[in-house]
Write a structure and sequence with these properties.
Blueprint (H helix, E strand, L loop, with lengths): L8 E5 L7 E2 L5 E7 L2 E7 L1 H13 L3 E13 L2 E13 L19
Parallel strand pairs: 4-6
Antiparallel strand pairs: 1-5, 2-3, 3-4, 5-6
């Protein structure tokens, strides 16, 4: 008998989704293209507000949307019970130039 496990999906985005529909309960419905798989997501208003605040507050940010794979839909699936975490991204400092070897004396 196989050991039981829980399959969770994590999707990372760094921009606000486009083509968003608001349902009668205020939930935001949108789709993400994840390497050719279309994932349908419904976020609660409070989670959506976190995304909007991150885009306004931080020059660079990333959001991790996690959930379980739901019903298959064409080439993708529905994300069930999504959770959202938003993080500020700090730009990486530029790499210092590599040290140059000392010049070879001519002689």
């Amino acid at each position: 008998m196989p050991t039981l496990g829980k399959l969770e999906v994590t999707i990372k985005v760094n921009e606000i989704p486009v083509d968003v529909i608001t349902n009668k309960n205020g939930w935001k419905l949108f789709k993400l293209d994840c390497s050719g798989r279309i994932v349908s997501i419904a976020l609660r208003p409070r989670m959506w507000n976190k995304l909007e605040e991150a885009s306004k507050q931080y020059p660079m940010w990333v959001a991790a949307i996690t959930g379980q794979m739901g019903q298959p839909m064409g080439t993708g699936f529905e994300l069930i019970e999504p959770a959202l975490q938003v993080f500020e991204r700090k730009p990486r400092p530029p790499e210092p130039p590599a040290p140059q070897p000392p010049p070879i004396p001519e002689g």
